[in-house]
Please model this.
Amino acid sequence: MLGNFQKSQLRIEIDASAHTIRESLLLPEKFKTWLAMSRLPKEMPTELHPGFEFTSWNGPIPIQHSVDVVGDDCLRLILSQGIDGFHEWYWGEGWVQSRLEGVTVLPLALGHSLNLLSLRQFVAIANQKKV
Model:
């Protein structure tokens, strides 16, 4: 794999329940909305599960995702092709933490930050619609 080893770990507060955060991360119909910078496949299960694999595209660069672990408060994806590494998510009431590590030519920390900000905005808008 070409590129440099990079890592990024972020934790942010989100005005949402752990259940809402979990749905935003595990339900493709929801994460397709806030992951606007990535092109995702049209055909996906209703919820991510261990063993499921899919490819997203960041511009011309494909990133293969293999769902490794899904729990009540965690998600782990093994990444290959455009990023050789992993992406872990942990969450609880009002917070989400994400760790991304891998070898890539992509600006990992920048994309990681933008994705978490997009998730926070998506959840905030969803919460406003519920009120």
